Amino acid sequence: MILISHRGNLDGKCGFENQPERIDYVLSLGFNVEIDLWVIYNEIFLGHDNPEFKIDLDWLFQRGENIWIHCKNLMAIELLNSLEVKHKLNYFFHDTDFCTLTSKGYIWVYPGKQPVKNSIAVMPEINNDDTSDCSGICSDYILNYENKTFKK
Q1: Are strands 99-101 and 107-109 parallel, antiparallel or unpaired?
Q2: Which domain holds residue 83?
């Protein structure tokens, strides 16, 4: 089971969402992290509602295997999709759809739309989603899932 911290949260919203230092801390604990990425005038930022924390491509590549990049605007997905090494990053874009495919072929499923076999369940605690057939969970409360036994 892949355990993904939503924006760097571990046990509810922490006030440090998408901050690079927080992302590194959560990665150091062994979790994957979903981050929100913006590209504005060819500069790269993290931030949920707005671009807040400036980063660069090297920052992404250094964490590439363990981050799930939610592209927040079309310029972000265009940039990542144009890179020669795009296969090293796992990124996606979605708006109001029930699910989307990430660049590495994972089915990223919106809250309340489970069960979907071999998918990533996003915030399953909101609707008490059945995650028994999921490949992973993305949650603000990822610590709650850390020690649970999952049926595969």
Answers
A1: antiparallel
A2: 2-146
Q: Give the span between the Cα atoms of 23 and 19, in whole angstroms.
A: 6
For residues 102-119, average pLDDT: 95
Q: Look at the chain and report how many structural domains it folds into.
A: 1
Residue 86 contacts residue 92 (beta carbons within 8 Å): no
The answer to the question of residue 59 being in a domain is yes
Q: Is residue 151 part of a domain?
A: no
Percent of the chain surpassing pLDDT 90: 86
**pTM, entire model:** 0.94
In a domain, 152, yes or no: no
The full length of the chain comes to: 152
Q: With 50 as the cut, is the pLDDT of residue 141 above it?
A: yes
